[in-house]
Amino acid sequence: MNKKSWQGIGASAGLAAGRIWLLGPAAGATAETAAADPGLIDSPSQLARLQQAMVMTNGALLQLEDQVRREQGEELAQIFAAHRLLLSDPAFTGEMALRIQDKGLPAEQAVQQVTTEAVTLLAALEDAYFRERAVDIQDVSQQLLQHLHGQGTGASRFPPAGSWVVMAEELTPAQTITLPKDRVAAFIVRNGGKTSHAAILARTYGIPAVVGVTAGWEELTGVEAVELDGEQGWIGALALADLAALPGAAGKPAESTPAEPAPAYTAITLAANIGNPSDLALVRRFQAQGVGLYRTEFLFMGTALPTEAEQAAAYTGVISACAPQLTVIRTLDIGGDKRAPALALPAEKNPFLGVRALRLCFNRPELFAAQLRAIWRASAAGPAAVMFPMIATLEELRQAKQYLETAREAVVSQGYPVGSLQVGMMIEVPAAVWLAAKLASEVDFFSIGTNDLIQYAVAVDRENSAVAHLYQAYHPAVLGMIAQVVRAGRAAGIWTGICGEAGGDPVLAPFFAGLGIDELSMSPGLLPEMRQALAGLDQDKIAGEGFVEKILACATAAEVTDLLTGYTK
Amino acid sequence: MIVHEFVINNKSGLHARPAALWVQTAGRYQSSIRLKKDNREVDGKSLLAVLSLGLTAGSSVQVTLDGPDETAADNELMKLIAELAAAGEQAGHE
């Protein structure tokens, strides 16, 4: 038996085992074909090959388009619709056919020539967004080449049955979303940190993931099957025979059974973080008490911006599905590590300290106003709240609220029915922690975004694995900030929740319970464990004198964890 | 033959989805449809060609339609351009 193992960063908890499926450009797709000898090329047969590759690519794209439309809605599906349009483009495939006919090129060379020229043409454009369309051209071209080589493409090549560990150098949100999640047992990604989008999405879907596997990657890619621990970041090689012997491993991905809601700490609402309306299935499966964080930015990460009506439809869908429980919609939080081609954001030297989230919205008022109008239009569908990310000053909060009021007036004057919206803000900038008492008097609730709060509090780029050890949710300073915010909220009579990753960390359950936090919102897959952790707490001990103070008095993260583990029954 | 200028006034220009909508609409007509900007004239039924003009917001572009259904094509394409500007990308109305 092969005992080799690798270490990465645990990005999404859970144990999994399965055969490896490598995600990436198919080998040989871009390999140069033999130089053309017009005398030897049979143009009609080359044309027929191109035609066949076009038909097959179209079929594969259609399949992908349908899947994305079902899972994620029209907006993302249109990326693939545009790709199919290229397949019937006279300047693209039409030109390829001409080159085969007139110049006697083999199909592969015609595809490559026209692609190179098209990419060059787009690369010369001034606008960065148009230049980025070159990626779409290359994407379609690559699929044509793969079909010419007799291979399937991309996600459509994904094995139709079984449970697979998807391995990739990098995993984009679109890839993560489009892979068939019923057949993905786990993700292993070479690049990226614990809070990369692929990792967040993996947690959303409850799929174990190990990221940042830098050492020994080449060796790992040669392995046929693995077992892994998405919490510890451990990956072990498995022989196929051993894999077959593992209970449940080869057949279907491990499914967490939703636990019964815990009787203890019913005062804490356990809500879900979601990124897409399709995540609602997980909200139900894991019995979330509403949505504590609806990340709207995924609507904006396609190749085109969503219209107000499209946004209103998406938000309405989530709100009405969650009713009578609350849906908290976060306004566009983009910039920093999130890319949105349709927004054509300029590159920044320090994107996490630059134009992101609310700052971006203030720079693009038409975008912000349209989103707020869409939220108001959806507000009639059920209990809803809006919250603003990345607020550092009181003026920003007031400005955002002004936009919200203007949007309401516009929507009402257009005759749309509107409901009531709770108005809240995220606390993720240390300056907002300091100002919490002042801010609390202007909002209905706080939601602490621990991912960014930790990043800004301990000055650690959360994408940088070299300083990952300093990114500590248990840092006494971080817990002190959380305590300060909760107390400021309670003094002002508003509720406080946590929607960052720490909100789903069962180790912190005693602290949150002792503090009297009102809501914890997390990736749906984490809910059962948190429910269990809260149920297992020794309530007398936690209610005991000075419990929270003892934790806040700790000097190190290690002291904090030692203390916390002593409060379970 | 119809020849006239128009301005792309949706916020993000005639990129990806808007360009795809344009090409899909144009493709439904028999008439030839050509777009011209800065002395570059391209096939208005080709996504690649339309993208290659780099029509950002505010771009002025000349369209030439020629064929039996040129008037209907022009009407629908100009309606599309107006709708793109109105559909969520610009403040003020839906």
Could you explain how this protein is built, in words?
The complex is a heterodimer of chains A (569) and B (94). Helices cover 44% and strands 14% of the residues of chain A. By secondary structure, chain A is an alpha/beta fold. In chain A, helix 12 (308-322) packs parallel to helix 14. Chain B is α+β, with helices and mostly antiparallel strands and 94 residues long. Chain B is 37% helix and 24% strand. Chain B contains 3 helices and 4 strands; from the N terminus they run E-H-E-E-H-E-H. Chain B has helices at residues 16-27, 47-52, 70-86, and strands at residues 2-7, 32-37, 40-43, 60-66. Chain B has a 4-stranded antiparallel beta sheet, with helices on one face. In chain B, strand 2 and strand 3 form a beta hairpin. The longest helix of chain B has 17 residues, at 70-86. The relative contact order of chain B is 0.29. At the A-B interface, helix 2, helix 4, helix 12 and helix 14 of A face helix 1 and helix 2 of B.
What is the CA-atom radius of gyration of chain B, in angstroms?
A: 12 Å
Please list the strands of the largest sheet of chain B in the order they lie side by side: 1-4-2-3
Low-confidence stretches of chain A: 25-36, 248-264
Task: Output the number of helix runs of chain A.
Answer: 24
Low-confidence stretches of chain B: 88-94
* Continuous helix count of chain B: 3
What share of the residues of chain B does DSSP label as strand, in percent?
A: 15-25%
Largest interface, counted by CB within 8 Å of the partner chain's CB: A-B, 42 and 30 residues
Rg of chain A from C-alpha positions?
A: 26 Å
CATH architecture of the largest domain in chain A: Alpha-Beta Barrel
Helix content of chain A: 40-55%
Number of strands of chain A: 16
Would you tell me the overall average pLDDT of chain A?
84
Domain HPr (chain B): 1-90
Protein name (chain B): Phosphocarrier protein HPr
Keywords (chain B): Sugar transport, Transport
InterPro entries (chain B): HPr, HPr-like, HPr-like_sf, PTS_HPr_His_P_site
